[in-house]
Specification:
Elements: H1 6-18, H2 22-34, H3 40-60, H4 66-83, E1 96-100, H5 109-120, E2 124-129, H6 134-144, E3 148-152, H7 159-172, E4 177-181, H8 183-187, H9 189-195, E5 198-199, H10 203-214
Parallel strand pairs: 1-2, 1-3, 3-4, 4-5
The structure holds cobalamin.
Length: 216
Amino acid sequence: LPGVDLTVVAQRYLDHALAGRDSEAVRTVLDPLVTHALNLNELYEGVLAPVAEQVGELWHRSEISVADEHFVTLLNQRVIAVAVTLTTPRGGHEGEVVLACPPDELHDTALRMLSHLLAAVGYKAHLLGASTPVRDLVAYVDRVRPGAVGLSVASPLAIPGLTRAVAALRDAHPELRIFVGGRCATRYPAVADVLGVTVCRDIAETVGFLAAQSSR
Ligand code: B12
């Protein structure tokens, strides 16, 4: 099937969303998903992530309100939750991964996507989501013994929380592999360097990182 122009789909989705036309917005992205003109990865990384980025810019320039931002963000999350039920996992990999945001990090949309993209290729992903207390993250890892933990940091506000989370995980499980992603992690690679963790930018890099682990 011919693919679709992701930029065009993203702009159409955003126009509908900002005008409050939520059903039209949802159809704009789910119709091509159902007909396989778009896959889950393209929807998440090629449409919804750029839309969120643009919403951030519009908000930053005071062209839209926080209410508009919230509306689009919640719509994105509805789309993410429905989209995963419309696709069939391919399998191929195995292993368990825990995904969380460190304390003070509320931006959890990327991890929602990542959990589904990992599940789509066979991993069992435990999505803990926004601002997870360090003590509870460690206790969760103690219980499920994942092969790796992925942390997302969007804003520099969460660097202290990330530092505490990595230190506590290392303390409890010295062999545990930890990867980080998100705007802050990729913009300031020194943060990951200092903490001794790997930066993964997207699902492809994450799968590469996890696969390298299981072949050791
Ligand atoms: C939605 C949003 C919010 C929502 C988040 C709701 C939620 N449940 O997630 C709310 C309203 C809570 C919020 C709050 C704030 N936000 Co905000 N927010 C955004 C916005 C518009 C979109 C973020 C998003 O959902 N992106 C979609 C995801 C899918 O994309 P992504 O996060 O870029 O991640 C991609 C990659 O980085 C990667 N990735 C991300 N994490 C990981 C992890 C791993 C392991 C891997 C492999 C990959 C990976 O995958 C994604 C797909 O490619 C951004 C704009 C932007 N440019 O990011 C601002 C933005 C991040 N926010 C910003 C700010 C300033 C704030 C606040 C401080 C505002 C305030 N004054 O209160 C607070 C801070 C809250 C906190 N303590 O965390 C700034 C940050 C600026 C900076 N210094 O870095 C941004 C950039 C807006 C802007 N242009 O100024 N925000």
